[in-house]
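Box 3.1. Reading complex inputs
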Amino acid sequence: DSGVTQTPKHLITATGQRVTLRCSPRSGDLSVYWYQQSLDQGLQFLIQYYNGEERAKGNILERFSAQQFPDLHSELNLSSLELGDSALYFCASSVGGSPETQYFGPGTRLLVL
Amino acid sequence: GENVEQHPSTLSVQEGDSAVIKCTYSDSASNYFPWYKQELGKRPQLIIDIRSNVGEKKDQRIAVTLNKTAKHFSLHITETQPEDSAVYFCAAFDSGTYKYIFGTGTRLKVLA
């Protein structure tokens, strides 16, 4: 157990819908990263937050947005869902924004029908 | 921006043999290189990492080497066991953009 929690574990929804994925970092970690992993694919970096502020942006679609709250938990919002958004979404956390070990959560498996 | 290439994409070895996975990166500003092991449907788990001021690091049967000049780093697993079977990802941390860029993964199969 890495100490990073993600909810829900599984999510099934329809095209056009909107969902929110939640991540709680390890105690003391200020940075949260979001990744998308499609079937048999690598990890695509979406976005990073550090202490409530957006720090880095990757290949995140305009339909997706995220935020990190004062208690440091983070939410990833996915809207106007398409079939191709079906994937595993991982959150990871680290102490700060410098090169430090990232610890991954268990992931949320999203299925868009 | 940073780009990480990983080879091979699949690797089959006999139990007890060694396995080597190689990654190359493009941005000389990258200064931290972790390796993750991911079992099917599970989270990526860090198995070893190396910083740019170190050339080699070892942890029991696992070692990582870094060649900054050539911009490549490799994962070495000795005395492989069936439980080593998984997908392995390399990554590079780009200190200019604060992004971790991952390789495309290597599916390692250890044959008993």
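In summary: The interface with chain B takes residues 2, 33, 41-45, 48, 50, 55-56, 58, 88, 90, 97-107, 109 of chain A (CB under 8 Å).
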